[in-house]
Design a protein that fits this description.
By secondary structure, the chain is of the alpha+beta class. 24% of the residues lie in helices and 26% in strands. The radius of gyration is 19 Å and the shape is globular.
Length: 227
């Protein structure tokens, strides 16, 4: 049900408030699906692991993460600027480093490295074959990795998406194009003609001292599967 009200996001009793490109709306609250996949289990285990590791940091390291979080606010679902706690930022950075196979960084990323977002596109040679994306810079520079995110499968009638999930991490020296068919199938099931996926990526620094520095998000592309 479309409504005219102040921006709201969240659930109260049996009603959920949210917004899309056409404005604010309310709907009946639905219980989220929890498939408990291997990927979900790994990420949840990582959250637990790094939450425990936070307790083992020295006070100087914890203070550094608290200061870093205060200096790097995030935007929430309503577009409002929010400041994470030092613990939240620490867990988020360590989880990303773990996803790309890099070692933990007990201190927040430094500023000696400039990290630009990758630019991605659909690999033209893969349109009638296994899905793949092209990207620049190529190959992925030393001390960096590229993280690719995917939407759930959509129909070609959908032109807007806000739901992106982790798909894969490509290491340094990986050259364009990047095959993603296996990862899409593992995450979303059998690929079918007519499905559309929205994709985006970002770079993460894996070198020492600046490990965990993350770029802004790349451009968003649509990948349409054909017969």
């Amino acid at each position: 049900m479309k409504i005219l009200d102040v921006p709201q996001s969240g659930s109260t009793a049996g009603t959920t408030s949210s917004r899309n490109r056409f404005g604010q709306y309310r709907r009946t609250r639905a219980i989220p699906v929890n498939p408990n996949t291997a990927a979900q289990t790994d990420v949840r285990a990582g959250f637990s692991q790094w939450s425990q590791a936070w307790k083992g940091l020295g006070q100087a390291a914890r203070d550094a993460w608290i200061a870093y979080a205060a200096a790097h606010p995030r935007l929430d679902a309503l577009g409002q600027s929010i400041v994470l706690t030092g613990l939240q930022y620490y867990v988020g950075v360590q989880t990303l480093l773990q996803l790309v196979g890099a070692g933990a960084n007990p201190y927040p990323p430094g500023y000696s490295s400039v990290l630009n977002a990758p630019v991605i596109s659909v690999d033209e040679d893969s349109i009638a074959g296994p899905p793949a994306i092209a990207f620049t810079p190529t190959p992925i520079p030393a001390n960096q990795a590229m993280i690719v995110y995917s939407s759930p499968p959509r129909t070609k009638g959908v032109s807007f998406n806000r739901d992106f999930r982790y798909l894969l991490a490509a290491p340094a020296a990986e050259a364009s194009p990047l095959d993603i068919g296996t990862e899409l199938t593992t995450k979303w099931g059998t690929l079918l003609p007519g499905q559309r996926f929205f994709l985006r990526a970002k770079a993460i620094w894996t070198g020492t001292s600046d490990a965990g520095l993350v770029s802004t998000e790349s451009n968003i592309i649509t990948l349409d599967l054909v017969a």
